Amino acid sequence: MEKVACALTIAGTDPSGGAGIHADLKTFQELKSYGMSVITSVVAQNTTGVQALHHVPLEMIEQQLYSVISDMPVHAFKTGMIANIDMMKVIAKKIPSIAAPYVMDPVMVATSGDPLIEEQARDFLRKELLPLTALVTPNIPEAEFLIGRKVETTDDMKKAARSIVHDLGAGAALVKGGHLDGEAVDFLYDGTTIYSFSAKRINTKNTHGTGCTYSAAITAYLSQRLSLYEAVDKAKHFVTKAIKGAFPIGAGNGPTNHWAIREKGVFQ
Ligand SMILES: Nc1ncnc2c1ncn2[C@@H]1O[C@H](COP(=O)(O)OP(=O)(O)OP(=O)(O)O)[C@@H](O)[C@H]1O
Ligand SMILES: Cc1ncc(COP(=O)(O)O)c(N)n1
């Protein structure tokens, strides 16, 4: 009998529906993987920023992980917002028991600039979680933090991707160029080859959740047993469409459109 591809996200929430767990589950659904989620923090946020944070107790994070892993198949999983070291320790302990590719979106701040993880946790993420990944997907400021130097050109991006794999031990690195000018180009390094994925830059401020959506799409495709290259290639196409069709809703950076690859939605 054919088995459905199952994808898991371990991340924080966004009640306005554009980022975090919500973006991940919408993306899994859209790409036809069965979506599951473990919530790390409940975040009161919207398109203008983060208003409040509530961290789920450690035992409850552990319990959620147990509930999923002990009963459900996981063919690929991702992490997003993990706010502090204690949460990271709980998650790191469980990762070896999930025999599936691990995609890390090293979330540090929201598009609005609000911090989503504690300062001290960044080092733990780099030293302890990064070596467990099949792929890490930093944007430019995240890549700069990981390697400890400036990333200002496409050449710097490629060097950063190599460093993240060879010096920090990630399985592969996808350095995203959303924060540079010009083409929206990303570089994937898989330990042997650098690949580039490029799209025309879309002139929009509605980019809330793009990083979450992109890493969720990669996770969905990996859960369907696509190669890393194919998964990133198809996910880039998906996120570009989602940005092109992004909604001008909310007073700040509007959310990406997760159904943009199919029919139009219902508009007022
Ligand atoms: N204006 C844009 N037009 C086209 N593609 C874009 C644009 N902005 C970002 N991208 C693409 O979207 C993806 C996410 O990249 P980005 O660098 O914005 O990640 P991020 O900073 O983690 O996202 P977020 O803004 O959600 O924090 C990448 O493929 C990037 O090239
Ligand atoms: C729970 C959660 N996780 C991640 C992000 C980053 O998404 P973005 O940078 O696109 O706002 C976010 N805003 N909220």
Description:
The structure is a single chain. The protein is α/β, with parallel strands linked by helices. 35% of the residues lie in helices and 18% in strands. Strand 1 (6-11), helix 1 and strand 2 form a beta-alpha-beta unit. Helix 1 (20-30) crosses helix 7 and helix 7 packs antiparallel against helix 8. The mean pLDDT is 95. (4-amino-2-methylpyrimidin-5-yl)methyl dihydrogen phosphate (MP5) binds at residues 11-14, 19-20, 43, 45, 80-81, 107, 110-111, 116, 208-212. Adenosine-5'-triphosphate (ATP) binds next to strand 9, helix 7 and helix 8.
Topology of this structure?
Blueprint: E1 6-11, H1 20-30, E2 34-39, E3 41-46, E4 49-55, H2 58-69, E5 76-79, H3 85-94, E6 102-104, H4 121-129, E7 135-136, H5 140-147, H6 154-166, E8 173-175, E9 184-189, E10 194-199, H7 210-223, H8 228-244
Parallel strand pairs: 1-2, 1-5, 5-6, 6-7
Antiparallel strand pairs: 3-4, 8-9, 9-10
The structure holds adenosine-5'-triphosphate and (4-amino-2-methylpyrimidin-5-yl)methyl dihydrogen phosphate.
